[in-house]
Every structure is written in C-alpha cells, then in structure tokens.
Amino acid sequence: MLIKNPMNILERRATITVSIIMALRMLGLFMVLPLFALYASSLPGATPWLIGLSMGIYGLTQAVLQIPFGALSDKIGRKRVITVGLCMFLAGSVVAAMSHTIWGLFLGRALQGAGAIGGTLLALIADLTREEQRTKAMAIAGMTIGFSFMLSIILGPLFASWIQVNGIFWLAALFSLIALWLLFTIVPEPLYMVKAEDHADFLSLLKHQELMRLNFGIFILHTIFTASFVVIPISLQNMAHLNGEHQWFLYLPILILAFCISVPCLLIAEKWQRVRPFFMGGILLLILAEFLFWLFASKLLLSALSLLLFFTAFSLLEAFLPSLVSRTAPKTRKGTALGIYSFSQFFGIFVGGTCGGWLYGAFGLTEVNLFCALLAIIWLGIAFHMKNPQYS
Fold first, then answer.
1. Whether 122 contacts 15, CB under 8 Å
2. CB neighbourhood size of 237 (10 A)
3. Are 66 and 340 in contact (CB under 8 A)?
4. How far apart are CA 111 and CA 95, in angstroms?
5. For the chain, what is the largest distance between any 2 Cα atoms, rounded to a whole number of angstroms?
6. Of 21, 43, 85, 387, which residue is the least packed, with the fewest Cβ within 10 Å?
7. What integer best gives the mean pLDDT of the chain?
8. Contact at 8 Å (CB) between 244 and 238?
9. So what's the pLDDT on residue 26?
10. Within 10 A of 277 (CB to CB), how many other CB atoms are there?
11. Cβ distance 134 to 327 under 8 Å?
12. DSSP class of residue 132?
C-alpha cells in the first residue's frame, strides 16, 4: 500500500514553524564556536582547561536536562516546557553577552545549554503530525538542525566582524525572543495529548530494545559528527591546502547538493514504506565517507566527495532517527522517549569532541576518521536487526 496523502495545512505550519524555532536556537548556540577560543582566551582568568570547559559545558547541561524536560512535557504540556527552555536560553545569552570573565562566560554557556528542549520540540512535532507524515516532518526538523550547524559556522565570523563576539550573544538573545513569539502566535496547540501513565515507566523505555538501538544510533551519529569536525577543517587546511577562511566555499555547495540527494530518498522511503533499506544505506555511506577521509585527506576532490557522502548520510540518518523513535515509543511517553533520545544525541556531541581532540593529539588527524569509520561499522552491526516501522 502506498502513502499518497500529503501533509495538511496544520501539519505543514507546525513542522515549518517548530523547525524555525529549532534553527534559531541552533544558530544562537553555534555561531560563536569558530571564534570562541580566541575570544575566551582574552578574558581574565582564562586557562586552556577553562576555555575548553566553557566551550563544551552546553553539551553536558543539554544532555543532563533533556530527559527531565521531556518527562515534564508529558505531564504539563509541550509549550510550557518549551517556554521555560527558551527563557533559560535567553538568560544564558544575556549573561554571556555581558560577561567580562571566563567564569561569567562559563555560566552563560551552561545556562544556554540548560534550555534543553530539543526532545520536547520533536515531541511537539510528533503530537501535531499523523504517523504517515511523521518521517517527512522529522526530516525537515533533522535537516534544519544539520543545515543550521553549518550555516552558523559560515555566519559567525561574518557577524563578528560587524558586532563583535559579545554582539553574537545578544543576537542569540534576540533569536530566543523571536522563537517565543513564533511559539505563541503560529504554532498550533495539539488537539489531543495523552497524559503519562504508570504502565509505560521510565525504566521500561530504557530497556526497550528498539529504542535502545535507536538511542545508540543517535549517540554514535553525533559522536562521529563532532569528532570528524574536530579534524576536518584542520585536515582541509593542512593536507588539502584549503585555507580556513575559504572552506565555506566548499561546504555550501556540498550541503545544497546533499540536501537535493537526501530529500528524494526520504520521500521515496516514506512513500514505499522502505525506511530500513535507506537507513542501512545511510550508515554504509557514512562508513565509506570516513574511509575516504582516512585514505585521501590530501586530495581536495576526493575530500569534497567524502564531504558529500558524509552530509548526505548525516541528513538521511538525522531525519530518520527521531521519526523512528516517535513511532516506536508508547503514545503516553513520547516526550520522555524523545528526551532520552536527545540526551543520547548531546552526550554524543560531548564524547565526540572529547575523543576527537584526544585522538588527534595522540595519533594524528586521519586516525580520527578511522576511529569514526570503526564506530559506524559497529553501528551497522547493531542496526542490522532493526525492524521496518509499522504504518497506520
């Protein structure tokens, strides 16, 4: 049976608006990353350890609070929790913008991360879309996250030349206000939301075999993504001789092409109800991309091909995973399940950055790519037994 009915007006409005909210939050978090170390090193009290801690603390606070926020949204409603999260992000942005010491910057970034509403935003999309439309909705959200990350790397240095680094934090505060306005004026209220019940408790979600497989998958995907981007910019500059200020010329067309490849794949997978083959194919593309990075890092054209495979695989997998979690989780515990999922995602960012930096220092650039390829092979073995999702 084919799924022919398109998204309705409510589903389109909800998916696009919530995705914009996610994009504004991601831009606010990541535009400062290319400039963070240099800016932080100029602040009183800065040491290399504190600079690194201040840079990564948002990932840790995100990971720790994703599950409580997701569980709370199951009880009191998605919009209330999202409002609290955006207000915390606003407060953290203001603190970081006004800080003149490394500890103030540390506190600001920790507060930004404490607005841990990624899982709750995904649960809101799940509440506002029918099951047969959910992969498309999650695809839009997933690719928004990936594209926002890369766009932030391009826009951060550009904006900093006009408004300085503390101005970027003020811009992040403005983004949070815009997100709050969108939440209350455009995002519709879910017509029906089932309250949490005892039969689907937290421990059962942790033990759920399919959810465990999917949570491991998002952890591995973001470990690979973050570890790879510890070394890819350096590798492109030192081995492929593409200067850092010119690398966005390579990223931008590759991201657009990856988007054009991945979207038809997502639509075909949904229409023909063949998510599993495309999912496994995405992991295989990821393995191939990492091996090409490992073997041919000094060849610019092959590095470009590796990036295309990498971003195509990332777009596919980032889109499929939240949809699969929302379909697999009990209806009364979607917020909690997506909170566990988001915890795995952000903990993967923390682990990927830590491991990528250590491996680079201990063994070299390309060995990080080999490590990522081996991680993806392990993931392929675990995902091999996944089930094709059930359709209504």
1. no
2. 15
3. yes
4. 9
5. 64
6. 387
7. 80
8. no
9. 84
10. 11
11. yes
12. G
Triad 351, 354, 359: Cα angle to 5°: 115
Q: Of 280, 272, 14, 319, which is closest to residue 136 (Cα–Cα)?
A: 319
* Tokens encoding 334: 């979607």
Residues 6+ apart with CB under 8 A from 252: 150, 154
Q: Alpha-carbon distance 90 to 171, whole Å?
A: 10
Distance from chain centroid for Cα 86: 17
Q: How far is CA 356 from CA 96, 232, 348, 371, in A?
A: 26, 11, 11, 9
pLDDT surpassing 50 at residue 249? yes
Contact 319, 278 (CB under 8 A): no
- pLDDT-derived band at 198, boundaries 50, 70, 90: very low
14 vs 357: CA distance, rounded Å? 38
Length of the chain: 392
Beta-carbon count within 10 A of 352 CB: 26
- Return the structure tokens found at 367: 């060995």
User: Within 13 Å, how many C-alpha atoms sit on residue 183's CB side?
Assistant: 24
Calculate Rg over the CA atoms of the chain.
Answer: 20
Closest CA to 124 of 87, 75, 73, 167: 73
The stretches of the chain forming alpha helices (DSSP H) are 9-30, 33-41, 48-76, 78-98, 102-114, 118-127, 134-185, 202-207, 209-238, 248-271, 275-296, 300-328, 334-363, 365-383
Q: Which of 141, 107, 111 is nearest to 126 (CA)?
A: 141
Query: So what's the pLDDT on residue 383?
Result: 86
Answer for the pair 253, 366: CB distance below 8 angstroms, yes or no: no
> What pLDDT sits at residue 211?
82
- Give the tokens for residue 380: 């392929």
pLDDT (mean) for 98-106: 87
Report the Cα–Cα distance between both ends of the chain, in Å, rounded: 11
